[in-house]
Design a protein that fits this description.
It comes from Brachionus calyciflorus. With 289 residues, this protein is mainly beta. The chain is 7% helix and 46% strand. It has 2 domains: 78 residues, Hepatocyte Growth Factor (3-Layer(bba) Sandwich), CATH 3.50.4.10; 201 residues, Jelly Rolls (Sandwich).
Length: 289
Amino acid sequence: FSSLGEFFIKEEECDLIIGSEFFYLSEEILVPKIFNCLTKCLKKTECAYVTHKQGLCSLYNKYASAKKVPAVNVTVYKRISRINLNKIAQYWPVFNSSTNEIFSGANMYGPVNVLFIPDRNGIPNSAIRLTRGYYSLPARNYFSGDFTIMSWVKLTETLRFQRFIDCGSDRYKTVTLSLSYETTNKPYFKINYDSYSTEFYSDNALNLSVWYHLTFSLKDTIGYYYRNGVLDKSGGLIYSRNITRTSCYLGKSHFDNDPKASADFDDIKFFDRALSIDEINREMEISIL
């Protein structure tokens, strides 16, 4: 709940009792994790209240407040205004066969060789599987200075220079996060602008068929790569340019001879600042709950 605390307040010791009056109910679905339940509410304009009981996620409209009653050991989550998104810029939770982005509307599109699969917690249709495939991301100024990008990732095939994120205005003005340098399965981090290019890569390979929480962060001109919340490698990079990036992909390179990715992805987040290691670990722990 803590990562969504700026969007909800907890009203404890109360419940919403609607009986057969389904006018108040927006949706009801089995969702084991409260975080995913609240995220589902954020994606529905009409959702104003949430309850989560024994894995049953119930979303209610604003009129349901009239049905509020005292109750023991029950909590109602009330949605509040999104007034200060000073941390997360874009978030693709991947849930219920959706790759919509819940804060800025940067919804993924144009899937190629994509399936929805159970996530690492077994929730159906809540992770993306690319099999030499990719998604496109809409044009945005994703990187106007310091930034952090993180996701749960599982490699399913060893492929030369397969991408996590490749985002720029053309192939010579990109921020590139790769899951493999050559065919080593060692992630690498690259920023280039015209003829000037900087990069570094991990000394530690990713194993196939294992979920990892991967984080790439830029602070001033130093890049950082974290694996499962632990700093794996850092190195000097040029500062990301403040430009609109019209050619951005999940799983695809700007160079046609690089294969598309074969990997699973879930819980993809972009932040418009460099997160501390404590913040990175909190984000990872929240997504495990």
